[in-house]
TrEMBL record:
Main localisation: secreted
Pfam families membership: Flagellin_IN (PF07196), FliD_C (PF07195), FliD_N (PF02465)
Lineage, opening ranks: Bacteria, Pseudomonadati, Pseudomonadota, Gammaproteobacteria, Pseudomonadales
Swiss-Prot/TrEMBL GO biological process terms: bacterial-type flagellum-dependent cell motility; cell adhesion
Organism expressing this protein natively: Halopseudomonas oceani
Location in the cell: Secreted; Bacterial flagellum
Flagellar hook-associated protein 2 N-terminal domain sequence ranges: 8-104
Span of domain Flagellar hook-associated protein 2 C-terminal: 235-461
GO CC terms in record: bacterial-type flagellum filament cap; bacterial-type flagellum hook; extracellular region
Subunit text: Homopentamer.
Protein name: Flagellar hook-associated protein 2
Length: 484
């Protein structure tokens, strides 16, 4: 940096810097105030729009006809069965008995002394209901473990899987246990064997045909043939009755017995209850609890929106009576005033029918502008005026649609708030441009002032030099008395 002020002794750089700062300070302060105010309003409008959009989602749910057509279903014993219902279900009650659940087939084939010893070679044909797979057994996979792996590798889509279970006491040997995921009577596992004439064992020992049964109980081990095959579980239909009508199902989820109702069986009733003819109730009714929950969400959503609006339009005193109050970014904002007034007007509009205003549902406005619920009055309305709720709340002329129509112009794309935030964004961009121009002007001013001060400094230096020369010459003139 050039050294200045040598001639005059002035700190020219500091003087110029102070002059430039003083010249730019008013505009800089103005731009900072404008930027802070614009940013605050930009952020506040974003919060305002977010609060409105959140409330709109609450309105959307209450404006859905499905909410008022929904059905609730109740099981008299959820440990025995659970139940759900859709809008196609008719209100009513039913008596159920659950005799047994649907179950799948599981069999333990003839035991072998050791899971790693070869059994034989050939082809196993495994069947369960309409499913059938062929598994080739060669010498490399002829042990129970190898056969298990070959079956599982082949049966990925068949629903038949294999495991090896070993009796630790040795009495039952090692067994290949086959399981099917296909439930329903007649879908028991069977195994057919085609041997290839090899001298390596006899694969036919794993052939299996399930015995006929009527009690579907597992078959016990034969004391005379402890290694013999046995049924672990039979494939079986679920059996129940609804209002005395016998029903069987290959699945424990039954959705075609009662229109719109899905029953999931969890366990059978005790034999004692079955013998006594004990039944379990199943009830289907209007899902009033969901409507109540949605109305509570409406009140909570409205109050949350108003809380957000109040915080954006509040004026907070600072420093007692003499302090300057602190105003939030949207104090006096026309958009906020207009919208809140429109919402309050709609909520106070009287409709026709048994439910005319929100107060008929026990929803009233408090002194601070928020809503509160009278639970007893809401329960009474849900019980006695339920059919009028959808007319009052939902549909094109319903309260929820009317409220949404007031909010939509503000929150939609290219709506009121988006246009305002775009304008504010343009203002912020303009502030950046003004700052750039101000910096350029101040840089030019600094250059000009430095040139002027440096010229002055050079002039002063020249004058000082001339003054010193003249003083020296005058001091040397004849007749000039010199101080001793």
């Amino acid at each position: 940096m050039a050294i200045t002020g040598i001639g005059s002794g002035l700190e020219i750089n500091k003087i110029v810097s102070a002059l430039v700062s003083a010249d730019g300070a008013p505009k800089t302060a103005q731009l900072s105030r404008l930027e802070n105010a614009t940013t605050s309003k930009f952020t506040a409008l974003g919060s305002f729009r977010s609060a409105l959009s959140t409330f709109q989602s609450v309105l959307e749910k209450l404006n859905s006809a499905d909410l008022y057509n929904a059905r609730s279903a109740t099981s008299g014993d959820s440990k025995v069965f659970s139940v759900t219902a859709d809008s196609a279900a008719s209100a009513g009650s039913y008596d159920l008995q659950v005799f047994n659940l649907a179950q799948t087939s599981k069999v333990a084939l003839r035991g072998q002394a050791n899971a790693t010893d070869p059994v034989g070679t050939g082809t196993l044909t495994l069947s369960a209901g309409s499913t059938s797979i062929d598994v080739e057994i060669i010498e490399d996979n002829s042990s129970l473990s190898g056969i298990r792996d070959a079956i599982n590798a082949k049966s990925a889509d068949s629903g038949i899987t294999a495991t090896v279970v070993t009796d630790p006491n040795g009495a039952g040997g090692s067994r290949l246990v086959l399981s099917s995921n296909t439930a329903g009577t007649g879908n028991d596992i069977s195994v057919a064997v085609t041997t290839d004439g090899s001298d390596t064992g006899d694969l036919s020992v794993l052939a299996y045909t399930p015995p006929a049964t009527t009690d579907f109980e597992p078959t016990p081990s034969d004391p005379m043939d402890p290694l013999g095959p046995r049924v672990v579980s039979y494939a079986r239909d679920a059996n129940l009755s609804i209002d005395g009508l016998a029903i069987s199902s290959t699945s424990n989820t039954i959705s075609d017995a009662i229109d719109g109702v899905s029953i999931t069986l969890k366990k059978a009733q005790s034999q004692e209850d079955i013998d006594a003819g004990s039944t379990i109730s199943l009830s289907v009714g209007l899902d009033k609890s969901s409507v109540r929950t949605s109305l509570e969400s409406f009140v909570d959503g409205y109050n949350a929106m108003m809380k957000s609006i109040n915080s954006l339009t509040s004026v907070t005193p600072v420093g007692g009576d003499d302090g300057e109050p602190l105003a939030a970014a949207l104090v006096g904002d026309a958009s906020v005033r207009s919208l809140t007034a429109a919402l309050r007007t709609e909520m106070g509009t009287v409709a026709k029918g048994d439910v005319r205003i929100l107060a008929d549902l026990g929803i009233s406005t408090k002194s601070d502008g928020t809503l509160e619920i009278d639970s007893e009055k809401l329960d009474d309305a849900l019980e006695n005026k339920f059919e009028s709720l959808s007319t009052f709340l939902a549909g094109d002329d319903g309260l929820m649609s009317r409220l949404n129509a007031k909010i939509e112009p503000y929150t939609k794309d290219d709506g009121i708030l988006e246009k305002r935030t775009t304008s504010l964004q343009n203002t912020l961009s303009g502030i950046d441009d003004q700052r750039e121009r101000l910096e350029a002007r101040l840089a030019s001013l600094e250059t000009r002032l430095l040139a002027q001060f440096n010229a002055m400094d050079t002039l002063v230096a020249g004058l000082s030099s001339t003054s010193s020369f003249l003083a020296s010459q005058l001091a040397n003139l004849p007749g000039i008395a010199k101080e001793s």
